Amino acid sequence: MSRRAPSLIAAPPGTQDILVPAGFVVRRFAGTLAHTRTLSRPIRVAHLTDLHVGRVTPARVFAETVNLTNALEPDLVVITGDFVCHSQAYLDLLAATIQGFAAPVLAVLGNHDYWCGAPEVARALRRGGAELLDNAHTTLTLHGEKLQVVGVDDDYTGHARVERAVKGLSPGVATLGLSHIGEVADALWPHGVPLVLSGHTHAGQVTVAKLHELAIGRVVGHRYVHGLYGQRTVEAGEDGAVYVGAGIGAAVLPLRVGPRARREIAIFELGAAPGHFVEPMVEQLPHPGRAPTARKQDARLKKVARYRARRVRRLKALPPETPSQT
Ligand SMILES: [Fe+2]
After folding, report:
1. What is the mean pLDDT of residues 79-84?
2. Measured between alpha carbons, how far is 236 from 52 in angstroms, rounded to an integer?
3. pTM
C-alpha cells in the first residue's frame, strides 16, 4: 500500500507550521460561549481518543501522535478511552506513550479497557503520568485560569455514574466533560458542562459515501457519529455541545478510508468564541439514536466479568515461577 506524503497545516496562532504525518488530520475549533464568560484568556486543549495501543496499530503511529500533539503546543491533553485492544501485552508501550506528552494528561476509560482489565490499564496510565477521571472531576490552573474537567467512566460497559462525577462542581468555573460514549453528553449538559469530548465510534473507519453514518448511526444506533453536535452558543446548564473524535488506532481492522476517518487530533481553544476563526465543520444534526435495551446492558456487564474470570483462570494455569540459579 502506498504511503501518502506528510502535509503542512496552517498552524494555530503562536505556533510555526507543523508537519502532519500521512494519515493524520488536525481539526481546530473554538470552545463555547460559556467558556468565553468563564475564561479571560484561551486554554488550548488537544483531544485524542481510541489509541488502541496493540498489535493492530503500528507503534510508529503512537510516536507520531505524541510528536504532532506536542508540536501543537496544547495546555492540556485529554484522551477519551480505549487505550488498549484485546490484551495487556502492550501496557508498557501505553505508559511510555502517555509519558511522551509535554502537557498534563487527563483520561477516562473505554469499553476495551474494561474488557482487558481496567485496574491494569489505569495503573499504566498513572505510570505514564496521566490523571484518570473515573466518575470524578479535577480542577487545573493553566496560565492562571481555572478549568474543571469532569470525567465519566465508560457507559458502554455500564460504569458511567454522572451524578457522582458532577457532585461538587463549582458553578462559574470553566468546565469541560470527558466520556468515551458521546451520548453521555445529554446527561452532562444540564449540570453546567457546556462541552463534552468523546470517542468510541472511530468515525466508522470507512467514511466514503457516508457509510459511517449508516453503520454507526442507523445500524448501531449512535446519536453522535463523528464531529461536532449540539450547540455552543447557549448559556451553560441549558444545553451544550459534544465532539466525537475519529480516534488514533483500531482494534479490529487497521484500515481507515475517507477524509473523516483519518487519525485525528482535535484542538479546542476554550475561551475563543465560536465564529472567531474558520473551523473545519459546523454543528451537525444528531441521528435519531437507539438506547441499548436492559438486556443488552446486562450482556455487556457480563462480558466484562467473563473476560475477568478468563484472565484469572489463565493466571492460575501458569506454572509457578522458579527461582533464578544465577
Ligand atoms: Fe475504540
Report:
1. 98
2. 33
3. 0.91
